[in-house]
Amino acid sequence: MNKPLKKSAINLYGLPSFGFQTMVNIEVMFFAAFLTDFAKIPLALVSTILLATSIADILAVPTAGVILEKSNMKWGKYRSWLLVGPPIAALFYILQFSQIGGAAEISAIIIFIGFVVSHLVWNTFYAAHISMNNALTTVREERISMASNRGMFNAAGALVFSYFGVKAIAAIGAGVGSPVLGYTIMAAITGGIMIACNLIYYVITKDYAQNGSEAQAGKPAEKMSVGEMLKQIVVNPPLIGLMLVELGRYLGRFIIFGMAFYYFKYVINDLPGLALFMTGLTISSFFAAMIAAPIAKRLGEKTTYMLALSLLVIGLLLVWFMPLEATAFKIIMFVAYIGYGLPDSLGVAMYSATVDYGEWKTGKNARGFIMSLISFPIKISVFVRSVIIAAVLGSVGYVADMAATPELVQAIKNGIALYPAIIMVIGLVLMFGLYTLTPKRMAEMSKEVAERKQAPLE
């Protein structure tokens, strides 16, 4: 019998995500700029690095899931990774933002190695942390609260970095007389923060180290093959539906972020307002995370998710359809983006439900593998986003500082609003048909699984 969770294990569940966000945002915001403007790597080689690292990052997700499912260290199947993984990832992340060796080719190789190793390791301990939502407790309300708290910590980490981190990189670089070292040292500092956050939650969960990893009484612990893990996707329609709608949601977000510069420059002529816009979206996400748990507990996760994402779609369609001034655009997007943040705070709990469905369906629990897939839609959407944005700009022959022609303005509005809205509507339709898990059905499945485990061995 698992011990009841203490409040700190629930309320600080998102702490590792806070540390992760403070670290990863260096890459999200500045990786390409670091390669071209600071490491001075030729553009053709930069393009190769970005393509190769994107592919490696996509492949790292299922690989990390397999590693997590196959591993079982003594400090807990999932908890152990909070201790072991972060120092390794932080070390190689520093290499990703370094300039070692005289030739650009040598620097590129070291950066690529730093990227691949750090991402493989952090995908593994990130999946382990996410898996703890399902492993630590079987209580739906606790899972929702933990997922919501993670959403708040996620948003807080991004907000802290955007406010302090951007300035700190430049200040450190100026202080040591090397802009490159500004990035290297900041990667080390945020890596240290990430390690500390994971270590704190590792200590907090000491009493629950073996939760979710006990073998059934009288039976040896199950070891699933890679084929059995992949089968867990095929036989799990709720998981497929959730991944598809998440792909649409993340793709919409990344397109919005990628097109925002062009919208502010050419459509509303307010480029200085872009920083406020980005900060405002993060605040909207934080607010959404605060209200996610009580709403989801009352309406159910699926209903809350679909209503919230519909709010974002409506906001985007207003942006696409109506001529808006800068202030009106920001207000509409700040409200609409609550519709992005609410699902972001429910995803972990909903993936946890698909783990339980998979165990009910197959009799085997692939918690580590399934929970690792939470990152898969993110990686795919980052890759696809670049293709879509390039196509939007290419459709009007975009060049830097071109005139704001009606064709350019319409293309940008299509890119930032219409196309993301269409993508998310498709995701919602697929989710509606495939994600059939309700609180009542989850309770019935949990009861059936528990009865199977208590059945005498033949």
TrEMBL record:
Presence of the UniProt keyword GTP-binding in the record: no
Signal peptide limits: none
Keywords linked to the UniProt accession: Membrane, Transmembrane, Transmembrane helix
InterPro entries given in the database record: MFS_2, MFS_trans_sf, Na/Gal_symport
Keyword field contains Transmembrane helix: yes
Database matches in SUPFAM superfamilies: MFS general substrate transporter
Annotated transmembrane regions: 12-35, 41-68, 80-100, 106-130, 151-174, 180-204, 250-268, 274-293, 305-322, 328-352, 373-396, 416-437
Cross-referenced PANTHER family: MAJOR FACILITATOR SUPERFAMILY (MFS) PROFILE DOMAIN-CONTAINING PROTEIN, MAJOR FACILITATOR SUPERFAMILY DOMAIN-CONTAINING PROTEIN
Protein name: MFS transporter
Provenance organism: Acetobacterium malicum
